[in-house]
Structure formats: C-alpha cells, structure tokens
Specification:
- The protein is an alpha+beta fold.
- It has one domain (2-90): 2-Layer Sandwich (Double Stranded RNA Binding Domain).
- The chain contains 2 helices and 4 strands, in the order E-H-E-E-E-H.
- The chain has helices at residues 14-30, 70-92, and strands spanning 2-8, 34-44, 47-56, 59-67.
- A 4-stranded mixed β-sheet has the order 1-2-3-4, with helices on one face.
- Helix 1 (14-30) runs parallel beside helix 2 (70-92).
- It is elongated and about 70 Å long.
- The chain starts with a strand and ends in a 16-residue tail after the last helix.
Amino acid sequence: MQINISGHQIDVTPALRDYVTGKFQRIERHFDNLTDAHVVLSTEKSRHRAEATLHLTGANLFADSEHDDMYAAIDLLIDKLDKQVRKRKEKLTDHHRAEGGLKTQQST
C-alpha cells in the first residue's frame, strides 16, 4: 500500500511520517485489499486535524479527526478508519453459506 502524506500549514516531519505509516500497518493487518491512502495533516490555531482517504478495491473510505495534539488526532483517525475497514470486510464475507443445507424437518 502506498501512503501519501501531506501537510496543510504544517511541516510533515520524519517523526510524523513514521508515526502515520506505523499506524497504517494496523489497518493493513485487518484488510489486505488496500491500494493507497492519502493523509492530510493540518493545524488551525490550537486544533490539530488529521484526515485520510483510503482507496480499496471497489470503495473509498474517508475519516477525519481533531484534537489538541497531532499524535492523538492521528490515533483517533486510525481508530475510525480501522472500524470502517473491519465493517467493510464483514460486509464482503458471506455469513449465510452454511444455512442453506442445514434445514431440519420437524416431526409431528
């Protein structure tokens, strides 16, 4: 997966870049059909904002978060994306494949 990290009114330091890529490995463990991600880190006065768009095979997921600390905003962002990815993965799995052949007859 390719991760593009950009900053809006903030310099993306190597420490921030490493932190974001390390956190995205958590999402890659849950779902391996990720093609690329675009992360935008920005700051407005004392609020730090992190937003990301994930491109999956067949869908795009978006999440954003705000916090007083940039690292906490990234953590919140990853939590939101992880929840969306797990929900997407659950929708793709077939939960009803075993129900069709297990019907039992009731005797009277």
